[in-house]
Amino acid sequence: MEKILIVGATGSTGKRIIEILNNSQSFEPVAMIRKEEQKEIFDDMEVKWVFADLEQDDLSPALKGIDKVIFAAGSGSKTGPDKTTEVDEKGAIKVIDAAKKAKVKKFIMLSAMGADEPSQHEKLEHYLKAKATADKHLKESGLNYTIVRPGGLTDDMGTGRVKISEKLDSLGEIPRDDVAFLLIMSLADPLVKNMSFEAVEGEEPIKSAMIELSQS
């Protein structure tokens, strides 16, 4: 069973990922937390956790024994530039570097639609620039990777159906549930290897959409 470090485990999307992986026969989630009081959440779920702070710590100990990483941390698009830079850019780069040192097999990055052209989205420009810098660092790291760039995240119930492409022709929204499944499906070694793709809600089942994209 592969150990999967979830960075951003206490966030809305991170919690969904943990819940799904916790019922998996192939993957064992390990939650990365930075506050003492967060232990209880994962102890109650019988999920392993590790202490680490994106903004401060040497992250090498958190990667010990880890097979793959899902980076689902984010300051949020409404956060100011300083916090965004610390978490979405510098924090992500620290995890990528630690993952490379630990020789993890695959790194799955939760990015954002528009990260390939931040200047086209004035209100989100600082957020998308931070995401773009982290994405670039991952691509150049030598790690096997998948970068998932969803549209606007909603708390609607997931449908299991999406529209995905390396570049979509229009913006859209997608439930966090479906984003969590996209990130988890990306753990499968042959799927979307060394690819980045955009995702919004759509009509095609997630699994077949990802297989199709992988073969394109």
From TrEMBL:
PANTHER family: FLAVIN REDUCTASE-RELATED (PTHR15020), UPF0659 PROTEIN YMR090W (PTHR15020:SF50)
SMART domains on file: Semialdhyde_dh
SUPFAM superfamilies: NAD(P)-binding Rossmann-fold domains
A Pfam family per the record: NAD_binding_10
Domain Semialdehyde dehydrogenase NAD-binding: 3-121
InterPro entries xref list: NAD(P)-bd_dom, NAD(P)-bd_dom_sf, Semialdehyde_DH_NAD-bd
Protein name according to UniProt: SDR family oxidoreductase
Organism: Salinimicrobium tongyeongense
